[in-house]
Amino acid sequence: MPIPTPLHSRTSTLCQTHEWRDWSGYLSAATYQPSHETEYFAVRNAAGLLDVSPLYKYEVSGPDAARLVNRVVTRDLAKCQVGQVMYSPWCDQDGKVIDDGTVARLAADHFRLTAADPSLRWLQDVGYGMQAEVRDVTTQLAALALQGPNSLAILRRLFPDPRLSTLRYYHLLQTEFNGQPLTVTRTGYTGDLGFELWIANDYAPALWDALMAAGYGYGLIPVGLAALDMLRVEGGLLLIEVDYTSSLHARIPQQKSSPFEIGLGWAVSLDKHDFIGRQALLKEKKGGSPRAFVGLEIDWLDLERLYGAANLPPMVAGRASRIPVPLYASGKHVGQATSMVFSPLLKRYVALATLRADCAQPGTELEIEVTVEYVRRRAAARVARLPFLDLPRKKAVSRG
Amino acid sequence: MADRYDAIVIGGGHNGLVNAAYLARAGLRVLLLEQRHILGGATVSEEIYPGFKFSVFSYVVSLLRPEIIRDLQLSRHGLTILPLESTLTPLPNGDHIYRGPDPHETFRNISRFSTRDAEAYREYGHAMYQMAKAVKYILGIRPPDPTSFHPREWLALLKLGRHFLGLGEENLYTLVKLMTMSSADFLEEWFETDPLIATLSASGIIGTFLGPRSPGSAYVLLHHYMGEIDGVFRAWGFQKGGTGGVAEAIASSARELGVELRTNARVAKLLSRNGRATGVVLENGDELHATTVISSLDPKLTFLKLADPSDLPDDLVNAVRNFDTYGSSGKVNLALDAAPDLACLPGDGAHLRGAISISPSVDYIETAYDDAKYGKFSRRPYIDAIIPSMIDPDMAPPGKHVMSCFVQYAPYKLAEGDWESQREAFGDAVVDSLSQYIPNLKKIILHRQVLSPWDMEQQIGLTGGNIFQGELSLSQLFFLRPAPGYAQYRTPIRGYYQCGSATHPGGGITGAPGRLAALEILKDLRK
Question: What is the ipTM of this complex?
């Protein structure tokens, strides 16, 4: 039975639909309002506030903290300045991805990691013999995501801190709220301008209230997981256990993936000092990866044709679908689409997909399985570049 | 004129019943003989106290082979296994560890002791799943004879070797560890919370004369995980009406397939002529004839009592004499006037519908084992208790309950006195131990049934009272079960077969020995 998050007193009164999901054992609103699209558009048009407290959070500190974290993640932390945040996967010894998350460098010898799965044991074991302490702060630290074009303006109303305006993408600043330490990171899972706020549980409800009040007149509304799922697909952001399987949970070796196979090759620094999985990844880099992670656009006209034959208009799910669907090239199975959504903004039917490497070039023509009136058909689809939606404001820095 | 059958099955336990049903299904005319007034052997439900049904001996089901359920259409014959979804370990300080069907809830519960352990628990389940998947193959095959030069055996060994090599390096290492380590040592590689290790390690000692620190107990751990891979995770269940319901379902299917089931029919001797089985003679002197006779009893009865040892090769007789059937566990069944109230979690709750494990520390269980090593029952025993009436209300009158307590250790032979004089003292030790965690227990007991290994031998004929018909140690498994060279259900007497839990793959309500034996018999008969 899922339990309330530190923000439940707020989210539960706002959740009109009573539609909750179990996110890592916590009650998480799937929607707050009858239309999840209202929430989706709030993020793309104004601002949305999400309770992301169920994320697993770890703090690594001590003289060897940087060495420990650098041994875990595939990115090179030597390049991570204090005040910077890096997104990275981490792998097992065979170079297969265990999880992905962010690493925030709070101080030279102090890091905060987020993870989708419990990771304390892994981090502690990797750091065996090192002078570094790994602490699980999951149940102590709440997290709020303020996302959308108005997010900065709202935050500035609440925090007159001049550093906010110049805070760069994937950077953080430490400030205070009600006298309590608060970390603001310019990160998010929406592919939009946005921030994530990290604060001790007890102070989170007041922060939520303050943000909602500051957002009045700026179109701020609470946003649930249904809208988030659409936003992240548009942003080309993958989801563990949906778009790939953690190597810790794979039942057969074929279910595991390397970072190269889930589109995170850019986050692998093979030239940095040894890290877990490096040898295997070096080998894979040389020999090539059998699979690739791509964007996919389903041909709308072809979809209309298939449904038209059954006297129906195209029926696409309003929400993002997480049901894997087979993909074909020249009649042969070559992969699967794992997350799929009709983008209300782009008016394109798009998907995140894993494909055989030789079919993964942008523009490659494929077929996707579509079930029309209980009959399995195949619609034309094309490999597309990720992200589907690349908003300049996501990374833009205002000039004060 | 004596009756003639194609096959006579001796013993109406679940393996005998499964064997008879499969033979009848292949068209044989089959007679099954059971010494007691009731079928089931150790798989039996009885109303020991008016209105209260006890699963007298075995009490949970997880390993019953799904192919048997399908082949014999057992659901149609009443098989209904209700889920047993949680395990509660109450602790002396009033705390507890609860593991239930919601993985996140279990995670939080273990996290109260150690977040590392909560994380490891998931990975441990995953690793054991992989192991069980690897070993499951063995459960489904007739053990090949590694000393034989017959091409059939070579082929089987080759297939087996290929299977193991296909497991991958890591799984192979884990398997070797499981085969050689003690369950406590094995678990300490994963966990640091002592009561959690203790409770998990208990699966490695159930029914065996081993302590959690005895090498070899880790394999038994795996044996108990096997049921989890065929169906849903955590597939331990409770048969509606008690475990007797399992035997009744198989018996009903067997009857429909044409098996003649005869109770109150104790077999005195195997009849044979010129090294060939010809039938059996009952204790009342009746002779029954068949060209195939199958014993589902333990090997000591099968070879030393029913057959004439002088008709058998010395190596077999010696191996059977040395076959370890020394019982180590007892059973206490309670009829209760009200629901037990736990000190750690007072009142009603999901925890009452699962197992309650009295295993507060590894030392606690190991100390319990120490008592047994020197011929005493454990003064503070390990107890695996369930309250069947919480799952199936028909087990007791409304508002009242039955409680089934599996207890370890209770050595078959006591150093001082005998079980007839010590039985109630043993029962007192069990109730006292439970009362520490269930304060209202003594006040609500209406009736108590105490069973020692000796009682099991007396009542259902298990030599030594071993619940698996023979220790589940590595030295008595696979091609060594029950004796080297005789692990393929055949005996030196042509037409005489064995199909009990003392044959591969061993004990528990699996039905697998009964089925595999039937398949071998049918092969010999070219059916």
Answer: 0.90
Neighbours of A311 (CB within 10 A): 7
8 A C-beta contact, residue B109 and residue B95: no
pLDDT surpasses 60 at B231? no
Q: Identify the three-state secondary structure at position B204.
A: coil
Token pair for A152: 């900065």
Q: Dihedral sign, CA of B383, B384, B389, B394?
A: negative
Q: B1 pLDDT band (50/70/90 cuts)? A: very low
Contact list, A118 vs chain B (CB under 8 Å): 107, 115, 118-119, 122
Amino acid at B210: L
Chain B residues within an 8 Å CB radius of A249? 126
Terminal Cα distance for chain B, rounded: 28
Distance of CA B50 to the CA centre of its chain: 27
Bridge partners, residue A194, by sequence: A147
Whole-number Å distance between alpha carbons of B260 and B251: 10
Cβ-Cβ contacts under 8 Å for A332 (sequence gap 6 or more): none
Residue B157 is predicted with a pLDDT of 81
- Identify the DSSP state of B303: I
| Interface touch A249/B104, C-beta < 8 Å | no
Nearest to A24 among B104, B123, B130 (CB): B104
* 3-state SS track over B229-297: CCCCCCCCEEECCCCHHHHHHHHHHHHHCCCEEECCCCEEEEEEECCEEEEEEECCCCEEEEEEEEECC
Using alpha carbons only, what angle is made at residue A337 by residues A336 and A343, rounded to the nearest 5 degrees?
170
* B527 touching A (Cβ < 8 Å): no
In chain B, what are the helix, strand and coil shares in percent, each to the nearest 5? 40, 20, 40
Strand-pairing partners, residue B5, are B290
Residue type for position A13: T
Q: How many CB atoms lie within 10 A of CB A86?
A: 20
How far is Cα A233 from Cα A189, in angstroms, rounded to an integer? 9
* Residue among A22, A136, A249 minimizing CB distance to B115: A136
Question: What distance in Å separates the CA atoms of residue B228 and residue B9, rounded to the nearest whole number?
Answer: 31
- Please state the pTM of the whole predicted model: 0.91
Q: Does the beta carbon of B105 lie under 8 angstroms from any beta carbon of chain A?
A: yes
- Residue B509 carries which DSSP code? T
Q: Does B123 touch chain A (CB under 8 A)?
A: yes
Contact A3 B122 (CB under 8 A): no
Q: pLDDT (tens digit, 9 = 90+) per residue, A327-370?
A: 999 999 999 999 999 999 999 999 999 999 999 999 999 999 99
